Amino acid sequence: LTMVRTEGPRSLYSGLVAGLQRQMSFASVRIGLYDSVKQFYTKGSEHAGIGSRLLAGSTTGALAVAVAQPTDVVKVRFQAQARAGSGRRYQSTVDAYKTIAREEGFRGLWKGTSPNVARNAIVNCAELVTYDLIKDTILKANLMTDDLPCHFTSAFGAGFCTTVIASPVDVVKTRYMNSALGQYRSAG
């Protein structure tokens, strides 16, 4: 409410374009490749154990970061810029990419990659693996059939587990990505 009162309702959508770019690139890689990578680790077997699922989740989470890290840096910076108090740092997402590359070098767009890899590996494992496990348990116990209510229930449980497990790493990643040069020696 304070943001809406002091900055207007549009402030809640600060960084929306960058957020959409991030979500589309991250989700397409981490979710889109999960089943294929899981099958790769199980060598095509129908039964995927928890180890294969965890490995597939970690792999696709890390690959998503490798592809989309700059979009996450821009999203975090856009969302934090109004809070900085010194006016807008970036006028558009394109301006943000250019400014970060110009002022911090190409590596600036990849700031926070290590904690982001850790975060996305954890998120992917927690989200996709718990979704798989919850759904499998529901189906094996004949509590539901493999349809929308089952998928929704599994996704709800997975979302809860993911948030609880990933929150500490998410806080570290966000603070590091938005930190001033030299504020932290590393994300570790």
**Mean pLDDT across residues:** 85
Helix content: 55-70%
**Secondary-structure-derived class:** mainly alpha
- Major sheet: size, sense and barrel closure? none
**Fraction of residues in β-strands:** under 5%
Description:
The chain is mostly helical and 188 residues long. It has helices spanning 2-7, 16-30, 34-41, 50-81, 93-104, 113-140, 148-177. The protein has a domain at 12-112. The protein is built from 7 helices and no strands. The two termini are 34 Å apart. The relative contact order is 0.12. The model has no long low-confidence stretch (mean pLDDT 85).
Give a nutshell description of this structure:
The protein has 188 residues and is mostly helical.
Keywords:
transmembrane, MCP_dom_sf, mainly alpha, 188 residues
Q: What's the arrangement of secondary structure elements?
A:
Elements: H1 2-7, H2 16-30, H3 34-41, H4 50-81, H5 93-104, H6 113-140, H7 148-177
